[in-house]
Write a structure and sequence with these properties.
Blueprint (H helix, E strand, L loop, with lengths): L7 E8 L8 E8 L8 E5 L2 H14 L31 H17 L3 H15 L4 E7 L27 E5 L16 E7 L10 H19 L16 E7 L3 H10 L4 E5 L1 E3 L6 E5 L2 E4 H10 L4 E5 L8 E2 L2 E2 L5 H8 L3 E5 L5 H16 L4 H16 L9 E5 L33 E5 L7 E2 L4 E5 L6 E2 L10 E6 L10 E6 L5 E5 L2 E5 L3 E4 L4 E4 L7 E5 L9
Parallel strand pairs: 1-4, 4-5, 6-7, 6-8, 8-12, 12-15, 19-20
Antiparallel strand pairs: 1-2, 2-3, 9-10, 10-11, 13-14, 15-16, 17-18, 17-27, 19-21, 21-22, 22-25, 23-24, 23-26, 26-27
Helix pairs in contact: 1-2, 6-7, 8-9
């Protein structure tokens, strides 16, 4: 587990097909931070929840979506509910927003599911970390509901606004994620597709798109200069490249030849099978499945869509098609994170969200926390009783922990080259290489190498006897301890130890710290493992610091 990784509780919802009632659902835990958290709960879909959802759509949605349970008769009026403070009055829209949020929470976290959530939340609090809460919805009828507005009690924040409950949706039927290291900057490909006026064509419209692209790029590139937390967060630079109404070939070529970790699309999209259709330019579309292939091969980490219905399923004969939304299709193919809109969003609302979202990412926040902060910005600007803050929907791959940029607490401490600390000193360069090879070496940069099975290590060894965080090799100034100054050491943290070949034979080092001489051989975890040469460079190739 990464040192920044938070405990995760993943919950799944599915309709029971074997029962006679269409209102019968199963809710169970797919992942929990403790063994007893894997629980299962069967329940009925309540009629009053469908009624509240129907009333919510009448007020907030541009397009009516059928009820999750077709047999339920909708009601156009819902009873008022008490607010956090006695005697407080509120608009009908605020009461309706709150009632649907409370009703969804009470239905999902009923019975034993609530116990698993409470225990998982306690574990996260004990570790002083937020709890990642992920929701997988396998029944396509329930995808359209705004689960992001769930709240446990009146007066408490909605689940997608709470930075101690990092909420996202997920899909378990996915292609695996390859190992990837966190990026050092935000490298964004900004694509502007067909807009509302593009069907009539003309130079004036293209000029407007160019102006819009320039303005949006400026907003994104200025994000690292701001500080939304008031803390020293070591913000990272942001580079934005733009494409205006590209052909599919132009878009694919740019993605394949660039080094982007964020794909951003602004324009129109429509629900359709295979992940919907992005309207790149008049008469030219790109399906979600086609886009997924190139995003995965280009190793894009985050895809953001300012397009209508990106998180909605396609419908056929008034019924939603499973796994047909753009967001689901991209996650299914192996894109780590996708942020799309559940419904139509106004341009100014989208810009407000995007600016706060990119700013939080530039400050090294995980993607799900950045989404919560940006959603809070929408809530502040457009109020609780307006739908703007409910529209962004974040999907995350079940193997992805949300780190687009290396977190602050894992940033390597580096000594400036002009520092007086090492004046007159030189740090000898060193490296590890597999025995019998000369062309494959892993240099020890900055006097420190972390070895283990997790991708975050400097040397990743995928052998089953190697611990996730197995050992460190580091350089220390040891003149006062009787060693040559400076000297390399190995420190073992592992379960099975590290083997060092000495004149008397292989010696096991377990939870110890020992000096290393150039030319010594190492094995991590088992005598059956790969043998590594540890080599200190000659003084002529020493690394000056």
């Amino acid at each position: 587990m990464s040192r920044s990784e938070s405990p995760c509780l993943s919950i799944c919802i599915a309709r029971l097909k074997a029962t006679a009632s269409a209102e019968h659902f199963a809710i169970w835990v797919l992942k929990a931070p403790y063994p007893g958290g894997y629980v299962h709960h069967d329940c009925m879909w309540p009629a009053d929840l469908s009624q509240t959802w129907y009333a919510w759509q009448q007020l907030f949605s541009l397009e009516s979506i059928p009820l999750p349970v077709a047999a339920t008769q909708p009601a156009t009026v819902i009873p008022a509910i008490p607010l956090a403070s006695a005697g407080q009055t509120s608009s009908y829209s605020a009461r309706l927003m709150q009632q649907l949020g409370l009703s969804l929470w009470q239905w999902l976290f009923a019975g034993i599911i609530q116990n698993s959530f409470a225990q998982s939340r306690g574990i996260a609090i004990g570790q002083d970390k937020p709890l990642r809460l992920r929701l997988e919805i396998r029944d396509p009828e329930l995808i359209a509901l705004p689960w992001e507005i769930m709240q446990p009690q009146a007066g408490q924040p909605a689940i997608s606004l709470n930075q101690q409950l990092l909420f996202s949706r997920t899909v378990s039927d996915v292609d695996p994620l390859p190992n990837r290291n966190p990026a050092q900057s935000l490298n964004i490909l900004l694509v502007l597709g067909e807009d509302a006026l593009s069907s009539v064509g003309g130079q004036q419209n293209r000029l407007q798109l160019q102006q819009e692209a320039a303005a949006l790029a400026q907003i994104l590139e200025q994000c690292p200069q701001a500080d939304i937390t008031g803390e020293d967060t070591f913000s990272v630079p942001c580079q934005v490249d733009t494409l205006i109404q590209p052909t599919p070939a132009e878009l694919i070529e740019r993605l394949e030849n660039g080094n982007y970790n964020i794909f951003f699309y602004a324009g129109h999209g429509v629900p359709a099978p295979a992940g919907g259709q992005l309207l790149l330019r008049p008469g030219t579309t790109l399906s979600g499945t086609e886009l997924a292939q190139v995003l995965v091969s280009s190793r894009v980490t985050l895809a953001v869509f300012n397009a209508c219905w990106g998180a909605q399923s396609d419908r056929y004969n008034h019924a939603p098609s499973p796994r047909s939304s753009l967001a689901e299709v991209l996650i299914h193919h192996g894109v780590p994170a996708v942020l799309a809109m559940r419904d139509s969003i106004a341009d100014q609302e989208a810009l407000s969200f995007i600016q706060a979202f990119a700013q939080a990412l530039a400050e090294r926040m995980p993607i799900d926390r950045a989404a919560a902060i940006a959603r809070q910005q929408l809530l502040t600007l457009y109020k609780f009783n307006q739908p703007a803050w409910t529209l962004p929907v974040l999907y995350m791959h079940p193997e992805f922990h949300g780190e687009l940029i290396e977190p602050v607490d894992e940033v390597c401490t580096e000594l400036p080259k002009n520092s007086t600390t090492w004046i007159g000193q030189s740090m000898p360069g060193a490296f590890l290489r597999p025995v019998g090879t000369l062309d494959k070496v892993w240099p020890i940069r900055g006097g420190l190498m972390r070895v283990g099975r997790l991708w975050e290590n400097d040397l990743v060894i995928q052998e089953r006897w190697v611990s996730q965080r197995h050992a460190e090799i580091f350089c220390r100034d040891t003149a006062s301890n009787g060693y040559p100054s400076p000297c390399y050491f190995l420190r073992d943290f592992s379960r099975y130890g590290t083997l060092i070949l000495l004149p008397a034979g292989w010696q096991k080092i377990h939870h110890q710290e020992v000096p290393l001489q150039s030319g010594v051989q190492l094995k991590f975890g088992s005598s059956q493992g790969q043998t590594w040469d540890f080599v200190i460079d000659s003084p002529q190739s020493s690394i000056q610091t």
